[in-house]
Each structure stands twice: as structure tokens, then as C-alpha cells.
Amino acid sequence: FMHSGYPIMIHSTSVAELLNPKTARTQGIWGITHELGHNQQCSPWEFPPHTTECTCNLWSVYVHEEVLGVNRAKAHPDMTPEKRKSRAEVYAKGGRNLDTWSVWTALETYMQ
Fold first, then answer.
1. Which of 37, 39, 57, 70 has a CB 3.0–4.6 Å from the CB of 64, allowing a cystine?
2. Cα gap 76→72, rounded to integer Å
3. Which domain holds residue 58?
4. 57-70 tens-digit pLDDT
């Protein structure tokens, strides 16, 4: 699909999604912004390996809401208020173990 870094690499079959502003503003482009978010990660924010696939999603949330005007809940199905609340409750009731701190649970922590 795509590789972040320098240079950014993307399969030619995914380029249409990247270059379609209408789709980006109506459906979102989470996968693309997730990969580009890896270029925005800062080591002081990280708790490797637990957050490597999490903090890049801060960029996804920001780009969708501030640049594209797409609410986070519409940008990715795991970002609905119901799923976010449920995930936090399950994690808290499960003992708050770092081993079960998934990508989405970690993202919720950063978004607080």
C-alpha cells in the first residue's frame, strides 16, 4: 500500500485515492495519513514498541479534522465515540496492563 520515510513510497494502484480531494473530504484517507504520520513521530512521545503504530494516528486525527474537515468518527470506524468509550472501559476493567495497551487504547491515552 504505502511506505513512510524518505522517500515516501506508494503502490501505483493507491495513487488515485491520494490524489482525489473529493474522496479525502468525504470519506477520509486514514491509511495514507497514518503512513505519513510516521514521519511526524517524535521519540520523546514514544514507548516502543507499544506506541509505534499509535502516535502516527495523532497526525491522522489532526489532518482529518483540521485540514479535510472530516470528523474522526467518520475518518475511521474505530474512532466512533461508542468504540472509544468501550475500549477505555474494557482496558480499565482489565487491570490497565501495558501488555494489553493496543494501538487504539494507546491513541485514546494521547487524545485525552
1. 70
2. 6
3. 2-111
4. 999 999 999 999 99
